[in-house]
Amino acid sequence: MDCPSCASKIETAVGRFGGAEDIRVNYHSQVLAFRLDEAATPRSAVEEQIRKLGYGVAPVEAPRVVAGEPGAAADLALVRPRQPWWKGKKARLAAAIGALMVAGFAVSLAVPALDHWVYLPAALLGLVYFGRKAIAAARAGSPFSIEMLMSIATVGAIAIGATSEAAVVVFLFTIGELLENVAAGRARAGIEALGALVPRTALRIEDGTAREVPAASLKVGDLVLIRPGDRVSADGEVAEGESEVDESPVTGESVPVPKAEGASVFAGSINASSALQVRVTRPASDNTIARIIRLVEEAQDAKAPTARFIERFSAVYTPIAVAVAALVAVAPPLVVGADWDTWIYRGLALLLVACPCALVLSTPAAIASGLAVGTRRGLLVKGGGALETIGRIRAVAFDKTGTLTEGRPRVTDLLALSGPERTMLGLAAAVENGSSHPLGRAILERADADGIPLRPAKDSRAIPGKAVEAVVTGKRVAVGSPSHAAGQAPLPADAARTVAEWENQGKTVVVVSVDGTHTGLIAVRDEPRPDAAAGIRALGALGVEAVMLTGDNIRTGQAIAGALGLKVKAGLLPEDKLREIGALKEKAPVAMVGDGINDAPALAAASVGIAMGGGTDVALETADAALLNSRVVDVAALVGLSRATLSNIHQNVAIALGLKAVFLVTTVVGITGLWPAVLADTGATVLVTLNALRLLGYRFKSVAHG
What we know:
Helix content: 40-55%
Shape: elongated
Structural class: alpha+beta
Membrane topology: Multi-pass membrane protein
Strand content: 15-25%
Main location: membrane
Region (Disordered): 234-255
CATH superfamily of the domain at 369-405 and 529-640: HAD superfamily/HAD-like
Protein name: P-type Zn(2+) transporter
CATH architecture of the domain at 369-405 and 529-640: 3-Layer(aba) Sandwich
Largest sheet: 7 strands, mixed
CATH class of the domain at 369-405 and 529-640: Alpha Beta
Radius of gyration: 32 Å
Number of helices: 25
Distance between the termini: 46 Å
Strand order of the largest sheet: 14-26-25-24-15-22-23
């Protein structure tokens, strides 16, 4: 399925079978779920009908996304071969129509007398493809589909000799369908990327020996070994060992969390330093990542599908246009004995006036221009529906780590308790040399920036969650948490006050000690992006409210939010973020901006999801738009571009419908005939296209940083 309307066609078709109930089609996960009384309708008949509509179908191997009793629902996955988009049927169709149009144009230049015929092959090729789908949809209960609209428009154009226009219409429609195909495939890749976070195998401990088994086979109560560097294979509790675990894939927390016996760990998180034995508390089907996958799928399914404007309008426009054209052609001769040739001619002209070429182009032409302008700025939007929605938002929810902040801690403050600061920093850097811990990397980066040479260290050892120690120049140097340092020797009163002050500012503080004597303090924090404050102000100027949703602790969240001037909700897990998005969405359309896996459900649930370009693949795939340059000010730029695009769409629709209304009247009364009708339709198309091209000159407002 390439667009949400496909889902409605399938649901309608299946609903016409006797014994089919509780029909649900999830467009994003490509799953059709329904209850079927096979005494009334065999399952094979349903599958055959779906294939007639042009979709592949196969049983779902593991119906994890389908609610209901196991085995009580007939679950079918609407499938297509996994292949590059350019090898697909629609890509080949677009290439063939395009090649025929180019060939026709070349022949028309060489032999002008054949101008009427040279574009006919291209038009007929598109008509055969979409006409068959239109007929199948009509037989299945959807007579006024977008394919039917395009088929009628093409037949009308061919009937009055406008074969070149008919060819252009089917070509542009094919390109639009192809783009939707590509966007739909990329969106679905997000769920697959989520599933890849959990390792396929686990080391289950049996009789004191670790044996590799499939992670999906783990049961509650099993004991598994998690080695340093391994991803945690299941939700559970630490049964033995101490280590630090990187939970950023789940919580967004930028600093690894110390874990000891009894602590909970999440599937998909990464063990950083020491081996852990973990007791499984949730089966694979209900671990953290599986729940996030379900949240994403449910949020996407619940999101109101942005139906294309033309398809919504066609339900009324198509039957009325065809009926009026038919009445004009036959009613006067039958009722008052008028001349048949004259009124058939007017009916054909009216059909051309009704041909929705300009209307079909009005929205995609503006969208194409808007997307092109955005791409030049590094604003990647996945489709016209998302671009339209962005302009209507009234609130933006930001993740903190990697979105409003740079995503990597930096040294913000140094305080030497004895001796020079450079000496203290140099000792700390020597101890942290080779460390992969974010705090250690921050200290090393600061030492490198200050030009401090690294001294050799030996006998290094880590105390998980507490300190790192090494011998430097013959002295035992420790870099540890304030609580650990205070346990070794009391901190001076001034130092303790400084630690409390820095921690209240959302900073992580480490104490540097030499042979048991505290010699200095180092504060580290993931700092806001340079343009974050300016980006929040720019949104405020557009009348858009900003709020920060973070998995970090409340103290850190408030410190960052206070500096940027926005509201904050902290300590949130993925389901909490989802709840906050739902509350905002009840008031007005809302955008979610994030970069982490933990943001994926909220990105999907929001009216529109926006991912930072430097974020995870899951966030980028789940989101409707991405800021490739990772600038906060680009959120406001995207809103401004979307509003300009919406304005252009409204102008185009007014032009297309306005000209048609005028020529509808003049054609019926005989003032204008076939050629003026051709000019009216072509003229409207040209005007709509030129107006859409104006968007290419759109200029983004400059925003001062700071």
